[in-house]
Amino acid sequence: MEWIGLLNYAVFMAIFICIYGLLALGLNIQWGFTGLFNAGIAGFFAVGAYASAILTTPEAAGRIGGFDLPVPVGWAGAMVLAAAIAWPIGKICLRFRSDYLAIATIGVAEIIRLVVKSEDWLTNSARGVTNIPRPFGDLPYVQSQLAYLALVGGILLVVYLLVERQIAAPWGRMMRAIRDNELAARAMGKDVPFRRLEAFIFGAALMGLGGALFAHLNRAITPEAIDPMVATFLVWIMLILGGSGNNRGAILGVAVVWVIWSFSEILTDQFPPEIAIKAKYIRIFLIGLMLQLVLRFRPEGILPEPQRGVSGKKDL
Amino acid sequence: MLEVENLVMEYGGFRAVDRCTLTAEEGHITGLIGPNGAGKTTLFNLIAGAIEPTSGRIRYMGEDITHLSADKRFHKGLVRTFQIPHEFHRLTVLENLMMVPGHQAGESLFANWFAWGKVAGDERETERRAWETLEFLELTHVADERAGNLSGGQKKLLELGRTMMTDARLVLLDEPAAGVNRTLLRKLEEKIAILNKERGYTFILIEHDMEMIEKLCHPVICMAEGTVLIEGDFQTVRSDPRVLEAYLGETVGDAA
Asked: Where in chain B do CATH 3.40.50.300 domains reside?
């Protein structure tokens, strides 16, 4: 019985690792390969989660929709809407240098959070959207969890392959060139603003998909889920720790950080209640400490960016 | 081929380029000399579209390109190199060349997923061309090296190499010889002359190495304080008293 509980927990963690993996791959396209400092991951996550929720839930009183559409339509809609929102944001913000872009995107994510929190007609505000259909939700608990894991794992694998393809292709080479030297890339005929926008939208779409998978897993989405700590900064730590510029590193970073993040929660829950509440903060401290250590001793991450494009062993 | 009319570039109250007017003829290697701060590199930045002028006009092959973005000028065959090498330091030397050609099939997300055969064919052709360029520059042994690890002179060669990956018509070379050793320098001269004769590149060449200017350039333009001082063949410009005073730093008597 004990180990079945553990196994259940492992499956639950693995599902989260796959969802965060999508967020990390999205951020890797933006930061790792193009050098865009997006500190508003939570915003695109929220757009994706709510878009899919509204598209797939049955009709509800007091808010827009739901439209009762099939789940795949909701997920596609989540990506399209996250991309559509990224477009004007990128149009405006990508002109800024990296640190200003970070500030602007934090602001945008905060605006999205406030809209989600207060617009009754759209998101049912603080009560959130419930009754989100969950694929394989009718199966018994364990089977349902395993099936969902297989689904998100498959999606992560496909996304990973699709992203790797781009990075190995001339598109990726061009983006790495833009990251290395924007002025020279422009002089070599590359439309830098358009390409940066492209990477921003591509990454945002993956973040939206991650949000959708999260909402359907929980069958509900509320504004609390859009916490910059867990939806933005944790993803950053995962990417930096795993190795930005390396997609496998990004996913590894997700796994390492999420395991520490979850186990430290189990640990702090063992303490007497009056300490347990305070002990929660030790988790944030632990993650911060780990980031410090990585930046000090291995700034390129656990799996550093490989030298790509070496002739003779091209990974095309 | 290129006409610059009354070009002005102001930074605050300072005029880096001041009512500059000059032309470059097709097929020629025009030399651009002048003291530091004369506005030569600023002029290049204006012609290449890295910055927009305060006023004035730039015409290229009969078309007004004053407000055209740098990448669009590139696609019209107007290509520049940088005084301080701007290599893509984390890309390999081969990749530095391969990224250059415009409109590659594999620059489209869609094609990379759904038209892989076309992208692969395109890549083979680009790679073949890059190897050719490396052979011409005698850099094949460093093809897989990170460009950031090259020596200063090799980076200069790579700058030149990038222009060869294009269908360039007019190439702006900003001090190709600076920091390059004597042997490599002669090689560089040779390469520029070949590109001019065999590929029909028109060049504008900023250089402080007078030997190189003398060998390659006709006409020679001397700039000072943001504007053209004199234009003519090398000997005329060289012995002009204003040039001697402003740039070459010799008195008239010494030169004679």
From this structure: 2-87+166-255
Q: What is the pTM of this model?
A: 0.91
Size of interface A-B (CB pairs under 8 A): 104
* Residue B223 burial (CB count, 10 A): 27
Q: Answer yes or no: do A180 and B146 touch at CB < 8 A.
A: no
Q: From the CA of B249, how many Å to the nearest CA of chain A?
A: 34
The answer to whether residue A303 sits within a structural domain is no
Query: Does the distance separating the beta carbons of A165 and B99 come in below 8 Å?
Result: no
Number of other CB atoms surrounding residue A103 within 10 Å: 14
- Say whether pLDDT at B254 is over 50: no
- CA of A27: how far to CAs of A200, A232, A312, in Å? 9, 10, 30
Question: Which residues of chain A are within 8 Å of residue B77 when distances are taken between CB atoms?
Answer: none
Number of structural domains found in chain A: 1
pLDDT in tens, A65-105: 779 999 999 999 999 999 999 999 999 888 877 778 889 99
Judged by average pLDDT, the poorest of A55-59, A279-283, B134-138 is A279-283
Give the number of other Cβ atoms within 10 Å of residue A299's Cβ: 9
> Predicted ipTM?
0.89
Helix axes A2-27, A234-242, angle to 10 degrees: 80
The rounded distance, in Å, linking the Cα atoms of B229 and B38 is 10
With CB atoms and an 8 Å threshold, state whether A171 touches B107: yes
The CATH fold assigned to B2-87+166-255 is Rossmann fold (3.40.50)
